[in-house]
Amino acid sequence: MATTQPETSALSRATVFDDRQTQRRSELSRSWRRFKRYRPGVAGGIVIILLVIMAVFAPILAPYSPTEVNTRRLGEGPSWSHPLGFDGIGRDILSRTIYGARVALMVGIISTVIAITIGVLVGATAGYFGGWVDSLLSRITDTLMAFPLLVLLVTLAAVFSPSLKTVIVVIGVTVWASYARIVRADVLSLRERDFVMAARAAGANDIRIILRHVVPNVLGPVIVIATLGIGGIIILEAALSFLGLGVQPPTPSWGGDLSSARQFIRIYPHMAIAPGMMIVITVLAFNLLGDGLRDALDPRQRE
Amino acid sequence: MIRRLLQGIVVIFFVSIATFGILQLAPGSPIDVMVGEAQVTQEQIALIEAKWGLDKPWYVQYFRWMGNMLKGDFGQSIVRTGVPVSTMLRDAASVTIRLNLIALVISTAIAVPVGIIAAVKRNSLFDYVASIGSTIGIALPSFWISLMLIILFSLKLGWLPASGSQSWKNYIMPVMVLALQETALVARLARGSTLEILRQDFVTTARSKGLMERVVVSRHVVRNAMLPVVTVIGLRLAFLMSGTIIVETIFAWPGVGRLFIDSIFRLDYQVIQAIVLLSSIIVVVMNILTDLAYAYIDPRIRVR
Known about the structure:
The complex is a heterodimer.
Chain A: H1 6-37, H2 39-56, H3 58-61, H4 93-129, H5 131-146, H6 149-159, H7 164-172, H8 177-191, H9 194-201, H10 206-242, H11 254-263, H12 273-297
Helix pairs in contact in A: 1-12, 2-4, 2-12, 4-5, 4-7, 4-8, 4-10, 4-12, 5-8, 8-10, 9-10, 10-11, 10-12, 11-12
Chain B: H1 2-24, H2 30-35, H3 42-52, H4 58-70, H5 85-120, H6 125-139, H7 142-156, H8 169-198, H9 201-208, H10 213-238, H11 240-250, H12 256-266, H13 269-297
C-alpha cells in the first residue's frame, strides 16, 4: 500500500485509517456501554482508582510515618489524633494501612503482568505450532496446575528467601497456567480463520502473525481473567506475608500487619481490623470490576 | 482414555523432577540443618554425606529418592531424627482429612440448595442476598476471618477455645472458616449451572407437558445441574491443602498444613518434598478421576 503513487497514497491511507478508527471506536463504545450497565463493576472500578491514588500519594495522605515507633503508646486504642490507634510496637495503624496499599497493588499488578506475558507466549506458541511443541508446553502447563498453589508458593518463597521481590516473581511465574490454557484454545480456533490464512498468504511470518493478528484477538478474555485474578493474587500475597514468608517487617503490608496482629491478639485485638478490611475491599473491588469487564468484553462467558 | 492416563503419568514425572529441583536450589544444604551449631570436622560431614547419599550426583539422588517414594518409603525426617516421614504424614493426614470432610459436608449441604433456589427464584430477594453473600464470601481471606472469629468467640464471648484439637468445640471455628469459602464458591456455581439447565429445551418440554414447576425442577433440572457441581467439589477436594495450611497454622491443629509450615521453617527437606509431591499427585489423580466420572455419568462426553 505504501508503494502506490504519491497522489493517491495519502488519500487511500487516510481512508483506511479513518475506517479502522470508526470501527475500533464503535466496538469500544459498545463495550463501554455494556460495562456501564453493570453498576457493581463501575463501583469496583472507582474503588480501585481511589486505592491507586491512596498508594501513590501515601506519603501525603498518611498522617504519620508508617515505621516511626512511639514506645509510650504501645497498643493504644483509637483517639482523635490517631483514628485507628497504635499497634503492638507503637506505630500508627492508619498510616501503616494506607502504605499497605502499595505492596498489595504492586504485587497484584506486577505479578499479573509477568503471568500474562509468560502465559500468552506459551499459549500462543502451543496453539499456533501444534504438534510436539503443543504437547510439551501443555504438559508443562498441566504440571504447574498440579501443584496446590499455596504449597508451591510457600516452598518457593522459603527457598529463595522471602522478600517483596521474591513474592512478586514467585507469584508471577506460578499463576500463568490459566492464561496459557485459554490463549492456546483461542489460538487453535483462530489459526484456521480466514484473516490468519490471508496474513499467511500475504507472506507474514509466524512471529508477526502471532503478535499482530492472534494476540490482539485473545486480549479480551485475557484482560477479564487478569482482573478477576488480581484479587486472588492479593490474597495469596497477604497469606504469604501472614505466614512470615512474604514481605518482611518493618515494611507495611496488610498481610504482614495481620501477622503481627495475631501475635498481639489477646491484648490489642483492634490491630486486626483495618488491614483485613482493606484486603476485603480491594479484592471485592477487583472481582466486581472483573465481572463487569467479562460482561462487556467477553460476551461468550456471560452468565 | 489411555492417552489421558499417560498424560497423567508424564505430568507426575514432571512434578517429581520440579519438586526435587526446587529443593536442590535451596541455599542451605540438609547437612547444615542436621549439624546445626555443633562443631564438626570435614570427615564427619563426609560421613553424613555418604550415609544420606548426598555425595552422589543429583540425578542419582533423584532416582534413588523417586524409587523410594514409589515404594512408599518417604525417608526420615532430618530434623526429628529417626522418625519416618510416612508416620508423620499418616498421623497428620488423618487430622486434616477429618477437618476438611466435615467442612465439605456442611458447605455442600448449604451451598447446593441455596444455589438451586437462587436460580429458580431468579432476581428475587433470596437470589440477591445469596449473590451478595457469595460475592463477599469469596473475597474474605481465611486468615482474617480466623482472627475475627477468635476475637469474637474466644476473647469477647469466651465460648470457644482459640487453639488445640482436644474437644468438639475445637472443631467449630476451623470448620467454619474452611466451609465459608467453599460454600460461597459452590453456591455460585450451583446457581450458574442451574440457570443454564433451566434454559434447555427439555425443561420447556417438561413444563409444556403440564408438569408442576416443583416436579420439573426436582426431577429434570437438579439432576442435570449437579453434574458440574460434583466435578468441582471433587477438584476442590484435591486442593484442600491450600486452605488447610492457613487454618491449621492459626488454630494450632496437628495436620498436614501445620506440619508443612513447620517443616518449611526448619528446612526439613524430606518432609517438604514428600508433602509437595504427594499433594500434587493427589491433584493429578483427582483430575483423572473426575474426568472418568464425568464420562461415565454423561455419555454425551467422550474422553478424547
